[in-house]
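Homework help board

Subject: predicted structure for assignment chain

Our instructor gave us this sequence and asked us to write out the predicted structure in token form, then describe one feature. I got the tokens but I'm not sure how to describe them. Can anyone check?
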Amino acid sequence: MGEYVVKISVLKHLSVVLLMVCALPSHAYETQAKAAYVLDQSTGTVMLDKNGNDAVPPASMSKLMTLFMAFEAIRDGRLQWNEKLRVSQHAMNYGGSTMFLDITDRVTVEDLVRGVIVLSGNDASAVLAEAMSFDGTEAGFAIMMGQRALEIGMENSSFANSNGWPNPRQRMSMRDLVTLSDRMIREFPSFYPMFSEREFPFDNRAPSNTRNRNPLLALGIGADGLKTGHTKEAGYGLVGSAKKGDRRVIFAITGLPSAAARAEEAERIVAWAFRQFSAKVVGEEGTQLAQAQVWMGDKRTVGLTTQGVPQILVPVSAADQVETTLEYKGPVEAPIAKGDVLGQLVIKAPGLPDSKLPLVAMEDVGRGGFVPRIRTAAQVILAKLNGGLAGGI
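My token output:
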């Protein structure tokens, strides 16, 4: 990976930085979507962020939040797969994409979930919402959606309903949608295969609405989810995911002018993500990447490593143009517990936003006794007098 230079700088605290080669200028991926966010799940690398934090109309892509909460309710026993739910007048009144439910129906949770995933049923989403709501209403469930979204790190989402029906208070960011999808895929592997189902002819009620609208599922490119969306206000959007080998890519795009443009852009993103980048292991699990100096401890330094097997995403045509910066603020005050996050590994690659991996302590470091603490204090004083701090990588 090239030669590296150790630099030591004195700030308010002291930082140690390891630099590995310099990246050359590179053009980032250009998308016609108004907002887009692409994540390589295997490495945690954000591959594309175009207005990713903007809160925009999500259309039916917001049904993913309802599905996630339904999966949680099923897992926790608050809903059962074979449980039949009543259809309210409110749910029946929804237009747009529906399962054509009416108030005489009693529909199983399983059919409703498939109706939301495959058919994008606005009515099915409302039925599930009313069943899970603290007050039995979709409006009450929307409050629960907002609370749960914040709890799982979705910072730019608000909800007025369960299905994305146009409303000024129905907003989500592309980053939030990817965050939600990432969590859903990880937490509910037994439910996730439903997102790749291409047809669901519920009760043969609507021959014109039996097929999944996800344009990627039929292409044989590893795509297996998740949800399309379209309203006049939002334009055409898609939350998609595809897997090849050990890599999975999750993305969200919105604001496309047509269904054809959405399909083309989604396919381009998947091709670009897999063809132009590869995941590389940069060391074995537990590999020491640096030593952080310790303040007032029973040891002078503590080793730093990444959590798990460190992987980075690199451009296949510019693997030698990656800049890796290992940073921590020090000296680190004892006591330190093994696994404490003390810094970060910052990866800069051509055409990608910066990605960061946490650096953790490799061992426990206790508070030092009187003599080690005096020695440490003296070393810091001498270092400041000399304009630097001895030690490093």
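Reply (TA_rk): Your tokens look well-formed. For the description, you could write something like this. Residues 71 and 77 are 10 Å apart (CA to CA). That's the kind of observation they're looking for.
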